[in-house]
Amino acid sequence: MLRSHVHPTAVHEPRETARTAATPGRADDPERAEERDGRPRAHERDERLVQLLAPDGTRTPDPEYESWVEDVDGDRLVDLYEDLVVVRRLDVEATALQRQGQIGLWPPLLGQEAAQVGSARVLRRDDFVFSSYRENAVAYCRGVDLTDMVKVWRGTTNSGWDPFAVGMATPQIIIGAQTLHATGWAIGAVKDGTDAAAVTYFGDGATSQGDVNEAMVFAASFRAPVIFFCQNNQWAISEPVGLQAVRPIADRAPGFGIPSVRVDGNDVLAVMAVTRQALDRARRGDGPTFVEAVTYRMGPHTTSDDPTRYVDPADREAWAARDPLLRVERLLEREGLLDDQVTTRVKQAADAAARQMRAGCLGLTAPEPLSLFDHVYATPSAWLERQRSQYAAYLAMYADDDAGATGTDATTDGGAR
User: Fold this and answer.
1) Are 391 and 369 in contact, with CB atoms under 8 Å apart?
2) What is the percent of the chain with per-residue pLDDT over 70, rounded to a whole number?
3) Is residue 394 annotated as part of the catalytic site, yes or no?
4) Per the residue annotation, which of 301, 322, 327, 330 is the catalytic one?
5) Considering the chain, what is the average pLDDT of its residues?
6) Catalytic (active site) residue 140
7) 306-352: per-residue pLDDT in tens?
8) Strand ranges (DSSP E) for 144-300?
């Protein structure tokens, strides 16, 4: 459990001494006790997750964290619900576009909506996000244009959007590399004299990458205002988290001098609370925080993956009962806030967003080939210009061949030799 007063380089209390019986606001990990090879899963311990909203829609009080979301009233809850519904609808639409051959690939986020929406909605505009390729809900919350979200997957751009316009870097495909970028940006923010913070998103599999560990070393050493936000969705493509982590992933961060917290990643309120607390630490100059959001990837790793080959259907069914969208829906029903008018409005917003994404995707055109060189460097170089001219000459060969073929055909059609 993270305590906001813990110094980032202090020795973290061993978790074994902190285990207790069930505690209000701490949820048991929902994973099965045994992995396929008979070993206990990495997170099947007495560890408790920060939880403010149970799967049945009831509030679970937590004296440390509930104050961080006391401003979330009924209207704000409805807004969060709309976010969850919209991003799920966009995810379904993008998957359909891939299946229809309109985009080459899509990394679904089904099941991880609360982790992304809850954390993204508490960021300031001057904070900066560094994500992997699955954080499309974060991009939506940051204001990324829906067409820009699919450009790179349709192959019409190398990036997708202007990072500085929305405070979010374009998706990083190299696993874990964005953590270094976030730490560097955060150190720069301190030197600039601002209290803005960086947040970097990555999966459980990325924690085995050297880049993530190196980023945490630098972040702790320089007290960088950065949040390491790990979405533990239980799978590193087809490998279970228990294969790579024999202890909870959050236990790794204290070894670097970084306090950590484990949160129910399917609870949008709990995610908001722990992220706000981590942002508060960062803005006060107390350094980085590691957040492990325990969630579940309900679909494939990407649309080229077949999870039925390695996922136990019983596991998926158990996690479906903890659906992040349904628990907010149940809370709204309990509070009398989910009437037909709200339901209709939210559905219309989701459908409109999906139509906008589809229309934007289908309207994209292939870029001019030589535009590949336009934004490689801020200042052109002779080395880059030489490559550009060589590529232009290469393309010209095909243009000459096409012209020649056309001329030959025209002569032949005219009957002359």
Assistant:
1) yes
2) 84
3) no
4) 301
5) 88
6) no
7) 999 999 999 999 999 999 999 999 999 999 999 999 999 999 999 99
8) 198-203, 226-232, 235-236, 239-240, 260-264, 289-294
Q: Give, rounded to a whole angstrom, the gap between the first and last alpha carbons of the chain.
A: 86
- Judging by beta carbons within 10 Å of its beta carbon (0-12, 13-18, 19+), is residue 129 exposed, middle or buried? buried
- Side-chain-facing half-sphere of 297: CA atoms under 13 Å: 30
Q: Which of 251, 246, 279 is nearest to 68 (CA)?
A: 279
Q: How far apart are CA 186 and CA 388, in angstroms?
A: 35
To the question of domain 15-362 being in CATH 3.40.50.970, the answer is yes
Encoding tokens for residue 309? Answer: 């080959």
Query: What is d(CA 333, CA 176) in angstroms, rounded to the nearest whole number?
Result: 39
Residue 232 and residue 249: Cα distance in Å, rounded?
8
Q: How far apart are CA 309 and CA 36, in angstroms?
A: 13
- Find all residues with CB under 8 Å of 137, minimum gap 6, and list them: 83, 87, 91, 109, 112, 113, 116, 117, 120
Q: Are 194 and 126 in contact (CB under 8 A)?
A: yes
Structure pTM? 0.85
The predicted-structure confidence for 76-111, as pLDDT tens digits, reads as follows 999 999 999 999 999 999 999 999 999 999 999 999
310 is catalytic: yes
Q: Are 92 and 347 in contact (CB under 8 A)?
A: no
Contact yes or no for 200/229 (Cβ under 8 A): yes
Sequence ranges of the domains in the chain: 15-362, 369-414
Residue type, 410: A
- Of the CA atoms within 13 Å of residue 311, those in its CB half-sphere come to 24
pLDDT digits 0-9 by tens, 173-214: 999 999 999 999 999 999 999 999 999 999 999 999 999 999
Of the listed 12, 297, 330, 358, which one is catalytic?
297
Q: How many CB atoms lie within 10 A of CB 390?
A: 10
Active-site residue, selected from the candidate residues 19, 99, 284, 310: 310
Q: What is the pLDDT of residue 401?
A: 67
